[in-house]
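Q: Hi! Curious about what DoxX family membrane protein looks like structurally. Here's the sequence.
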Amino acid sequence: MAFFLGLVSIAALLYGIGWIAQNNYLLTFHNDMLWATTTMFVLIGLMHLRKPDQLTYMIANFMPNARLLVLLSGVAEVMLGIGMVFSETRILAAWGLILLLMAMFPANINVAVNKLPPPGNLPAKPWYVWSRLLFQPIYIIWIWYAVFGR
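A: Let's find out. The predicted structure is below.
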């Protein structure tokens, strides 16, 4: 949910800047969505790289080397997020982020099922932890619309 609020806030801010500056590039929702996606995935990816040990608890016990998985997902989030900005890499980056979100979904299920706290000191209430599962498809739709909905 916090990630979604970040996406929406950044996109709205960029649109507002475009409106004030009368900048047609920023008055295009797809462009604002692309930059919001880049910003949020780069930020979350850097968090994965900076503090991987704070996220390893989310990985199910049967998965090997949780720390390495967190680090790899962080690198992927940064690289794919940046790839969204460039027209030459945008489609590949979009598919990569969609696949990454699908691959990370079991970690969010693990958090909900095992009543673990969500990352980032967010509310550990069951409604919040379970609601995070509903946002994963929304992120996929967001990426899809930003890239393929033109």
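A: A fun detail: The mean pLDDT is 90.
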